[in-house]
Design goal:
The complex is a heterodimer of chains A (132) and B (128).
Chain A lengths: L2 H29 L4 H21 L9 H32 L5 H26 L4
Chain B lengths: L1 H25 L6 H14 L1 H4 L9 H30 L8 H26 L4
Helix pairs in contact in B: 1-2, 1-5, 4-5
The chains are: A mainly alpha (132), B mainly alpha (128).
Chain lengths: 132, 128
């Protein structure tokens, strides 16, 4: 397999794992309890994501891709920023409106915000490119 | 101008860490803690663009490279942290970890990791 194929396979694996974590986030929000099986799936998904993440954003040690690294780093920065805003707004709304979010719900919101903004922004930036 | 923004980020970060500590110790979001969180968010986010060198009129290529790399490492640290809390929660710690404590520790990890990685990479340099 060539390098292009490696990158494509990593991308598929990364996005699939991201979707699993996103679904776990959704379940955390709506179920309020995390079952033991789901917990094991969550651990495995995070391990898989960890294995592929730095390669996906072009920071694999052997064959670094400068463009992917730049796009990936900007997507991560955007995702970090949005995650902090989402968590803080959830907290502030809980304080103001007294909604009473549970631990599971706020963790689920955090996981969903992290994964969706990172993958979404990365895919948009890969197509649009970085010119700034 | 850049210095003022850096001070804003530092003050906002300290305020958020303080809020995180209060949330862990006091286990509450009550009183006006949410207002302090909003002020901390405004100060912290207001200067973040300049702090990591991404604000366009003042774009500094080295700061942007280091800042975005620091953000990447921080994002990964936060993901591992949130997943760890979710697993503790799933393994029966739901009654021990409250919402305020979980989010308080997450806030501290986010702010400390971005300051720490940015400081470390700023000294190490951006040459691979």
């Amino acid at each position: 397999m060539g390098r292009e194929n490696d990158i494509k396979m990593t991308r598929v694996a990364f996005i699939s794992t991201g979707m699993i974590i996103f679904i776990i986030g959704l379940l955390l929000v709506f179920e309020t309890e995390l079952e033991l099986n789901l917990n094991v799936v969550c651990a495995m998904a995070v391990m898989l994501l960890s294995a592929n993440m730095f390669y996906h954003i072009g920071m694999g040690a052997k064959d670094r891709d400068e463009r992917l690294a730049r796009v990936g780093n900007e997507a991560m920065s955007f995702s970090w920023y949005v995650t902090l805003v989402v968590i803080l707004l959830s907290l502030a709304l809980t304080g103001v409106l007294d909604i009473g979010l549970t631990t599971g719900q706020i963790l689920g919101i955090g996981l969903m915000a992290m994964i969706s903004t990172m993958i979404g922004h990365n895919e948009i930036m890969i197509r649009r490119g970085v010119t700034a | 101008m850049v210095k003022a923004r850096t001070i804003s980020v530092a003050l906002g970060g300290l305020l958020l860490i303080g809020c995180g500590v209060l949330m862990i110790i006091g286990d509450t979001l009550g009183d006006i803690l949410w207002l302090e969180i909003m002020i901390g968010m405004g100060l912290f986010m207001g200067g973040m663009g300049e702090y990591i060198g991404l604000k366009k009129p003042l774009k500094d290529e080295r700061a942007a490279r280091i800042g975005t790399l620091a953000m990447t490492y921080s994002w990964y640290t936060v993901l591992l942290w949130v997943a760890t809390i979710a697993m503790i929660f799933g393994f029966g710690g739901g009654y021990k970890v409250t919402m305020a404590q979980a989010v308080g520790t997450t806030l501290i990890v986010m702010v400390m990791s971005i300051f720490g990685f940015n400081w470390f990479l700023g000294r190490k340099g951006d040459v691979e």
